Amino acid sequence: MCTVHIVDSGHSRALLTVVTLCFGGLSASLTQTLVIPIQGELPELLNTTPANAGWVVTITLLAAAVTMPISGKLGDLFGKPVVLMSSAGMLAAGSVVCALSSTLGPMLVGRAMQGLAMGFIPVAIALIREVVPPDMANTGIAAMSATLGVGGAIGLPLAAWVVQTFDFHALFWMAAAFAVVLLVGLVTLVPRPRDARGGRVDVVGAVGLAIGLVGVLLGVSKGREWGWLDGRTIGSIVVGLLVLLVWGAFELGQDEPLVDLRATARRPVLLTNIAAVAIGFGMMAQAIVVPQLLQLPTSTGYGLGQTILEAGLWMAPGGLMMLVFAPVSSRMMTNVGPKLTLMTGGAVLGVGYLVAFLLMDAPWQLLVASIVISSGVGIGYAAMPALIMGSTQPSEAGSALGVNALMRSVGTTTAAAVMATILAGSGGRGGYELCFAIGAAAAFVGVAITALVPHVHQRVLKAGAAESATAGV
User: Fold this and answer.
1) Least buried of 137, 220, 402, 462, by fewest C-beta within 10 Å?
2) Stated pTM of the model
3) Helix runs in 305-396, H state only
């Protein structure tokens, strides 16, 4: 009886840990869609031009992309709990800065800080493997991975309701309150294993990676606004790529690189990261296209005439399906392995876009399509960390997962640019149909790439989890 009590107590603590970390992931990721309901009003609210106001969204995406691989490495060096607390503190501070801002400059500072808090997610996934019992690890990782999509999905209707009910500053006070609750949960509920392995921070590598990524992603994200053949667009992308090439050569010569490119080049890791771009593309395509289609006036002949809040509510069930499918994905990873699970997720994602292609004449039809698409994303996002961790050492898990999260971010940023360009250049229903077709193609490409990944059996993942748990005691 005593043994059963100890086991149950241990599992209860592990459940509280997973819930707390998932709440942190949701709190960080919802900042990505927090300002969408007021995007059109930002120029007036911040007394600036529409072009400048666009940076309120862009700077958060860029900061998030840069911070994920860096925070993962810092977690490996100095301990994951330290980085999680720092990310939560950054989220709280950035949210307060935004809440107190009525001009562009301070708002951009706060939004960049909110983006930096996205480093919480890959580090939390790596920590789950260390502190959660092996039989709960897959479910915990699946749920944590799903927060990348769930936070964005629930952020839209939540933010729309807050804006309609209160002043826009309330959005950021809400985010700050979430961050404070998260900090309390991290202090009181999450174990703090001694997992720091020490070492020096590759400052030059971090700066080089940041400059290169910002250059490439800035050119991609601003391409439609600036023009794809504009000197700023081409210059940003070319300079970014050149910096990344120099950065890669520099990293290969370091004893303690920011990113172990040799480990990243291993076939299972490399192919999983390439598949992550395709799956990330597929996730963001619906987040861009479906809300626009829902909100277009019915006078267009294909728009559905929904308000921002109504559109968010139609999409919210799809986001919640990502969490619903976390235990399903966990069971699949145990029974058939993460590779087939990721392929299944990609296939469901592709089918969801085909449903949207055929059914886009009523809000409930897009709801069905969104649920199918989100289910595929939930299954796929859960399997990717398992594939990565099955091919890396526990001491490198944070860095490897950070790179994987970055590749998903590359996919989402590219999708946003591609979808926006298509919708701006293709008038009528055909533009939306083309977006859905491209989303389906990206998902099925992800399936094909995943098929080339060497098989990682679940025994490897359980052994790694057990090793990490032992090391953290």
Assistant:
1) 462
2) 0.80
3) 308-324, 326-336, 338-358, 363-389
